[in-house]
Design brief:
Strand 5, helix 5 and strand 6 form a beta-alpha-beta unit. This protein is about 35% helix and about 15% strand. It has about 220 residues and is α/β, with parallel strands linked by helices. The longest helix has 17 residues. Helix 1 runs parallel beside helix 2 and helix 4 runs parallel beside helix 5.
């Protein structure tokens, strides 16, 4: 069971759709139950997966084996605190947040400097019962929503818990055309978030609609 917190946003819907297309049971979480249910119904119809349901955030994460955070940085701390008590000990939380300055009225090309170092490290502090990893930052929401097209790119995965990182990498490869790459400890999440901001601003400058990273020359054991 995969729960998407912020699953009604573009990135959340994209990832949820890809997971549903792979046949996984998916919960869409939101602060607005009606929006969550409508998004879930749309994804279920598009992917022909009946195991897609909409919930309030706290209900979405309760009992879920993996929770993916796809929330704007402005709501990151508040939402993390909101779901904290509903998480079971040991739940894997995958943080895909890119802390863009535009969320607080700044520039698209800049990230916000967080006290913890990155959004993922902030999540680790705010969700002490969870095993936090970081992934999916560089995937374009628009590209994810084109379900007839395999992605053909990589996602970099960071984490301090080896088992949680391995599970996150295995989850990523459920998406057609996506390869997962071990990018080290959770402290490297700040680098992933910065890379995502660079790709977003570059795509905006050249009016490109997709983004992604493809890493060449990796040994076979560097993938999941």
């Amino acid at each position: 069971m995969v729960a998407l917190v912020g699953g009604t946003g573009a990135a959340g819907r994209g990832l949820a759709s890809r997971f549903a297309l792979a046949g996984l049971p998916v919960r869409i979480g939101s602060r607005d139950l009606d929006k969550a249910r409508k998004a879930a119904a749309s994804i279920a119809e598009t992917t022909k997966n009946e195991n897609v349901t909409g919930h309030m955030n706290k209900d979405a994460v309760a009992g879920a084996g993996i929770v993916v955070l796809t929330i704007p940085i402005a709501a990151h701390a508040r939402t993390s605190q909101e779901i904290r008590d509903a998480l079971e000990p040991g739940t894997i939380v995958v943080d895909a947040t890119v802390p863009l300055e535009i969320a607080i009225g700044g520039r698209l090309s800049r990230t916000i400097t967080l006290w913890d170092g990155s959004a993922a490290q902030q999540a680790a502090r705010l969700l002490p019962k969870a095993r936090v990893t970081a992934a999916f930052h560089t995937l374009s929401a628009e590209t994810l929503l084109h379900l007839d097209q395999p992605l053909g790119c990589d996602t970099l995965v960071c984490g301090d818990d080896p088992d949680a990182k391995k599970t996150t990498m295995e989850l990523a490869t459920k998406i057609a055309g996506l390869r997962s790459v071990d990018a080290g400890p959770l402290e490297n999440a700040r680098l992933l978030e910065g890379l995502a901001a660079l790709l977003i601003s570059t795509n905006h400058r050249y009016r490109c609609k997709g983004s992604g990273v493809h890493i060449t020359g990796l040994p076979e054991e560097g993938t999941a």
